[in-house]
């Protein structure tokens, strides 16, 4: 039985289905959307994908992906070099940056400790973080790993490795999310919100 | 505030978020997956997208997308030219073809009548279907539009337009899906399964 779809369509469906969150049906929908779209629209997207790696570097200081070395945040002399915020990945960094609530610098771990996935401390950029702290300019390390088992394990590891260093090590507060209705909040979060309660 | 992500990443996230079923969060996940993948993997996908339209033609007979004109199905002399299966789109054709249960030819409407979306009979390839039937080689038109309001409206329109032609017009059976548990089947399907009941 011959394939009833053109070769280029079948090839694209196969390639798309390899991506995370994209199943075979979504891959088909996307391929036909692009086929019905103009050729130039497909070319624009295709070039954005194909040239993604061109010119992207990893910043030697914070290890974030960047257009140049050092990245714009590390190169910004206005930012507080004594405050170092440690995140799991660049999207966490972007979320904190977009909150507008932080004017220090960052360190990107590129993952979190996860024995199940075979990711240990040595697979992250913890050694580089220790080197940065050892250079002496950092006064506080804010560990902003995710509020997950992996994020907690990573935070504990960083806390242990920094013990004895003349640096304050903190973690993001746990509690109710803004707009959260207590009725629908999970028990672990309520317990942490109670434990971390503050004077009115 | 400077964009904390490299320009190429931001551009790709914007392009991906324009696709159907892909929200901003999925676009971010996909972009970072491709950034962590090898450059050649991103290039392979990018080229498959960019070159999608190259060399794809619309078959002059069945209106399916194809590598050549006529398509392999229309060019196949072994297939029964007297049986014509009318489908909404190429993925429906592929599903019927992959079922292995049909050895005739196809006609692709490229959509279904939908007043809500502003799609009328003239936006489909119904005129071309009538021309094919008028040429006289077709003995039966099997309308295989979806079992939806739009598919039903399209089937009715085709039935009316073919009235008086020396051709049998049929529709796919409605009833229980194979493996279906009657307990969980919707009322409309059960009613249609009863109505279409057959001798054991």
Residue windows where pLDDT falls under 50 for at least 5 positions of chain A: none
Named CATH architecture of the domain at 79-171 in chain A = 3-Layer(aba) Sandwich
CATH class of the domain at 79-171 in chain A: Alpha Beta
Note the run of SSEs of chain A as H and E.
Answer: HHHEEHEHEHEHEH
| Largest interface by Cβ-Cβ < 8 Å | A-B, 56 and 56 residues
Mind telling me the C-alpha Rg of chain A? Answer: 22 Å
* Global mean pLDDT of chain A: 93
Q: Kindly, what is the distance between the CA atoms of the first and last residues of chain A, rounded to a whole number of angstroms?
A: 73 Å
Based on Cα principal axes, name the global outline of chain A.
Answer: globular
What strand line-up does the widest sheet of chain A have? 4-3-5-6
Can you count the helices of chain A?
A: 8
Please describe the biggest sheet of chain A, giving its number of strands, its sense, and whether it closes into a barrel.
Answer: 4 strands, parallel
Helicity range of chain A: 40-55%
Number of strands of chain A: 6
Overall structural class of chain A, as computed from helix and strand content, comes to alpha/beta
Assign the CATH topology of the domain at 79-171 in chain A: Dna Topoisomerase Vi A Subunit, Chain: A, domain 2
What's the multimeric state?
Answer: homodimer
Tell me the strand percentage band of chain A.
Answer: 5-15%
């Amino acid at each position: 039985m011959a394939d009833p779809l053109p070769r280029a369509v079948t090839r694209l469906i196969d390639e798309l289905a390899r991506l995370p969150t994209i199943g075979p049906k979504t891959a088909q929908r996307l391929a036909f959307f692009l086929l019905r779209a103009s050729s130039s629209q497909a070319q624009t997207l295709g070039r954005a994908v194909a040239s993604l790696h061109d010119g992207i570097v990893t910043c030697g200081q914070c290890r974030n992906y960047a257009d140049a070395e050092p990245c714009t945040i590390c190169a910004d002399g206005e930012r507080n070099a004594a405050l170092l915020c440690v995140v799991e990945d660049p999207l966490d960094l972007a979320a904190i940056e977009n909150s507008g609530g932080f004017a220090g610098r960052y360190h990107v771990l590129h993952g979190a400790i996860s024995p199940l996935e075979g990711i240990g401390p040595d697979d992250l950029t913890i050694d580089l973080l220790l080197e940065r702290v050892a250079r002496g300019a950092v006064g506080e390390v804010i560990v902003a790993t995710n509020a997950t088992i992996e994020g907690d394990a990573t935070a504990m590891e960083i806390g242990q490795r920094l013990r004895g260093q003349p640096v304050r090590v903190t973690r993001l507060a746990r509690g109710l999310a803004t707009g959260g209705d207590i009725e629908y909040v999970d028990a672990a979060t309520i317990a942490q919100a109670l434990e971390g309660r503050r004077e009115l």
